[in-house]
From TrEMBL:
It comes from the Bacteria. Residues 7-154 form the FAD-dependent urate hydroxylase HpyO/Asp monooxygenase CreE-like FAD/NAD(P)-binding domain. Gene3D superfamilies: FAD/NAD(P)-binding domain. It comes from Rhizobium croatiense. Pfam families: NAD_binding_9 (PF13454). InterPro entries: FAD/NAD-bd_sf, HpyO/CreE_NAD-binding, L-asp_N-monooxygenase_NS-form. This is FAD/NAD(P)-binding protein.
Length: 456
């Protein structure tokens, strides 16, 4: 069978695209969703069952459907929740909401397009003479579609040192994928833990450790030793920002943003004022300026822009101030086993000195790799066959302003789109729900519009 649309992926982006397609496509259309994750809709972010793993965006901005902005808050209320639009719900509840939204749309059978969910990994892709793109699936099947939307998310970053050749004791003490929470059960309450990386994933793991009864020391090593900041309990109003009045250089931008931050009572109003114009701002920068931003400003951008819920921040700060969590700024050089412990050697930032952290566990929280295609065998193969092209900064794949893949040597008229972090080269801030949901709707609308035109 030839599908009108194949959506590849099983996280939020894939489900957001699918929900919009279900709302808009006629009953004659056929859609396939191919994902290798058993919990369609949850992805890495919303699979957690720990209530303390909160969203880092207030509930009022987390509706899956941008045209129904209160949808998530209403869903919380209808499920007995007491949360308001400005509160931070649990990520597990959000995963349930995403799945429920999809189920609600699928229940309306009358007039709805056909949707097949295929639990499999898309392993390869080829152009077919039938004017389609065909995917080879891990289960041996092949499916073909006239439109394809890639929603593959980002992969996990690898450790900067390769543990493959390490002795078995050392390997058994390295947690390469902390999202498999089963590792927490192996940690004794007094064990010393070294966490590599100091972003949102680190905070998640620290809180999960505490919830599992861990009371030992936690050393956090990252290049700059910077940790995410918190949202204000009463958020200040965003400062209106005219993107056209801003300079198109990173140094000029930083100067103006610092000045504006000094003029307002809370710097968060400047960061929040930037939200609606961030993509437009990014598109005004040359590739050299974008690369400069990634080299020099990215860690500061991340901690100010991707903030944690106020309660999460307060709980984490307590652990820092009582000395349970200690920060180290430097570069991991080697890992070895010494006297029954794991020893991480690192070069202290801006110094030549080497220091060491002794621990019982090392946890890789270097977080999501900024997309790129290296984490995905499918994308690497599509690149080899010129079906996609990496964007100039290596953040993901090259797409145009409508999220359609460009720069390839494809000949078939089948259309190929990407949604989510893979499109960071074009849009930059495209990792969180408030941005992805708008993109998902626009891509679905474009597919529906073109289908209507070709059937006219
Ligand atoms: C811990 C964490 C917390 C977050 N918290 C928030 C938050 O509070 N608010 C917010 O707005 N955003 C948050 N985010 C950002 C989050 O990434 C997005 O909200 C959203 O979940 C991204 O979804 P996605 O579908 O693009 O990617 P993912 O969730 O990564 O999903 C991609 C899916 O594609 C599947 N896949 C990959 N390759 C293939 C293949 N070849 N074949 C088949 N399937 C494949 C994967 O298995 C995966 O299930 C958080 C992210 C993380 C990691």
């Amino acid at each position: 069978m030839i599908y009108d649309v194949i959506v590849v992926g099983s996280g939020f982006s894939a489900i957001a695209v699918t929900c919009n397609l279900i709302e808009q496509l006629p009953a004659s259309a056929k859609v396939a969703v191919v994902g290798d994750d058993p919990g369609f809709g949850r992805g890495t972010a919303y699979r957690t069952e720990l209530y303390l793993h909160r969203l880092n965006v207030p509930a009022g901005r987390m509706s899956l459907l941008p045209h129904h902005p209160d949808d998530f808050v209403d869903w919380l209320k209808s499920h007995g929740g007491q949360l308001q639009a400005g509160d931070f719900a649990s990520r597990g509840d959000y995963g349930l909401y995403v799945r429920n939204t999809l189920a609600r749309l699928l229940r309306k059978r009358e007039g709805r397009c056909r949707v097949d969910f295929i639990k499999a990994k898309a392993a390869g892709c080829v152009e077919r003479y039938t004017s389609t793109l065909a995917f080879h699936l891990g289960n041996g099947d092949e499916i073909a579609g006239r439109n394809v939307v890639l929603c593959l998310g980002v992969g996990n970053a690898n450790l900067p040192v390769d543990p493959a050749g390490a002795p078995p004791f050392l390997r058994s003490r390295i947690v390469e994928n902390p999202w498999r929470l089963s590792w927490l059960r192996r940690v004794a309450p007094s064990d010393a833990v070294c966490i590599l990386g100091s972003g949102l994933t680190m905070i998640d793991q620290v809180l999960a450790l505490r919830a599992h009864g861990h009371r030992g020391r936690i050393d956090v090593l990252s290049r700059r030793g910077l940790a995410p900041l918190g949202h204000a309990r009463t958020p200040p109003a965003p400062l209106p920002i005219d993107v056209h009045a801003l300079p198109a250089t990173i140094s000029g931008l930083l100067k103006i943003l610092r000045e504006k931050s000094r003029e307002v009572a809370d710097w968060r109003s400047v960061m929040d004022g930037l939200r609606p114009v961030t993509q437009a701002l990014w598109q005004r920068l040359t590739n050299e300026e974008r690369a400069r931003f990634l080299r020099h400003a990215l860690p500061w951008w991340n901690i100010h822009r991707h903030r944690v819920a106020p309660e999460v921040f307060a709980g984490f700060e307590k652990l820092v101030s009582d000395g349970t969590v200690r920060f180290h700024a430097g570069f991991l050089r080697s890992l070895e086993a010494r006297e029954g412990r794991l020893v991480a050697d690192y070069r202290i930032r801006a110094k030549r000195e080497i220091a060491e952290i002794k621990a019982d566990w090392l946890v890789n929280c270097t977080g999501m790799e900024r997309a790129g295609i290296s984490h995905s065998p499918l994308l690497k193969e599509m690149n080899r066959f010129h079906l996609i092209v990496p964007d100039p900064l290596g953040l993901g794949i090259q797409v145009d302003a409508a999220s359609e893949v460009t720069g390839t040597s494809r000949i078939s008229p089948a259309r190929l789109f990407a949604v989510g972090a893979l499109t960071a080269g074009q849009f930059w801030e495209i990792t969180a729900v408030p941005d992805i949901r708008v993109q998902a709707k626009a891509v679905a609308e474009e597919i529906v519009r073109a289908r209507l035109k070709s059937n006219a």
